[in-house]
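debug: dumping io for the single-chain case to check the tokenizer round-trip. Nothing else runs in this session.
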Amino acid sequence: MSMSAMAANKIYVTQAGASLVFDVLQDGDGNKVGNSTTASTASGSATNFNIDQVGNSNLITFDIHGDSFTGVFSTTGNSNDIDFNCDSADSTSGCDDVNAVITFTGNSSNIDLDIGLSASGDNADVDIVGASGTDSTVVAATIDGTSAILRLTIDGDSNNYLIDIDGNGDVAGHTLIMTQTGITADVDVVQSGTADNSATVVTTGDSQNIDINQTAGGTITLTTTGSTASAVKTVNINQTGHAVFNTNGTILGQTSDGLNGAGG
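debug: decoded output
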């Protein structure tokens, strides 16, 4: 199904069966795919869709029940919301092999992603990309499953990130690759499971608050730059399990200068 609409349109989808292809373009303000109380739903394997919204105060709420999901969400404008759930209420589906790309441009967006809530979501591969100038954005991403990969790249100020990757990491563990550019960011990352995890976080900007908690061992590579002249930058790292904190010299083949920086 392919649809193009203009100005304050509402689309509700309830799909049962395999091999759904869903393509929607909404142009204008106040458009909705689902709403704040009733999400659009698709049940079955091999779901594939592309939802594009251009305008302000638009909303996407979509629940997927089934395996092999491929989807692209794209919003351009201010005060837009994306609420995507995979296996939010149907414990009979596995929510495996999720490949999702979420891109947005504009201020004051809310991105809420939940994969593998009532059943484990295995092999999730998710990209969240915010273009330059995406200020005052909240990104909440929760993934429960094995071998999850989350890539998050956002350029903007006064943003808040809540990242929680849980479940058995499998042999490869979970992987987070995050690049944040902008001032007054609040970054909260939690990785847990039974295998080694990997978190690579690069932040550039002033007055940031960064908290990373990682259990069951793993690797955290954190690079943070920015002035502390006007406000203190706070970094908290908590690792449990078989983790190694490399402060200086060469450990396990890696060379580091440890906590090497300048400023307040």
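debug: round-trip ok. The chain has a mean pLDDT of 81.
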